[in-house]
Design brief:
Elements lengths: L8 E6 L3 H10 L8 E6 L7 H9 L4 E6 L10 H18 L7 E5 L5 H18 L3 H4 L4 H5 L17
Parallel strand pairs: 1-2, 1-3, 3-4
Helix pairs in contact: 1-4
The structure holds FE2/S2 (inorganic) cluster.
Length: about 160
């Protein structure tokens, strides 16, 4: 019997909003995929590009950053900086033949527990469709083999209506 591929996903969540949303989801007894491992950070502005790249280098299949809604960062511009960093990492991934969809940025408020679960489920499903990271499999350029399209920018509106 063929084993179902279970992607490994890392989520950098800011303490004030997305981590609180995860907490709320837990209080509401909602479940999100166990493959998503949360790294709690004080603010997404703390997430360096190297953290994202290092996670992929270590064999994580997909990484996302989840911060406060734009304009609501407790450190003013942390989530704006994080968005730019995610965009730069997507460019780097494209250059080295890894599908940039493996990295993304989301914004949500502390009251969006349901949205937190949706994001986790949708992202895991996205990574499952992409398959194991080529870093892990050593299969070379993912973009050449899959012909996957790429977007350098994080998704335009990923607050309430993300894919
Ligand atoms: Fe949440 Fe900055 S405090 S993104």
């Amino acid at each position: 019997m063929e084993e179902r591929y279970e992607p490994q996903v890392l989520a950098f969540c800011c303490n004030y909003c997305s981590y609180a949303a995860a907490d709320l989801a837990g209080s509401m007894r909602m479940e999100y995929p166990a493959q998503v491992k949360i790294v709690r950070v004080p603010c997404t502005g703390r997430v360096d590009e190297l953290y994202l790249l290092r996670a992929l280098e270590l064999g994580i299949d997909g990484v996302y950053v989840a911060g406060c809604l734009e304009g609501n960062c407790h450190f003013l511009l942390g989530n704006i900086r994080a968005r730019r960093r995610v965009a730069r990492v997507k460019e780097i991934l494209k250059d080295i033949g890894i599908n940039p969809e493996r990295v993304d940025m989301f914004n949500l408020s502390a009251s969006m527990g349901i949205r937190f679960v949706e994001i986790a489920c949708e992202f895991v499903e996205r990574i499952r469709r992409l398959g194991p990271s080529p870093v892990k499999t050593g299969s070379g350029s993912e973009l050449l083999t899959s012909g996957a399209s790429s977007t350098a920018e994080p998704s335009a509106d990923n607050t309430m209506t993300q894919k």
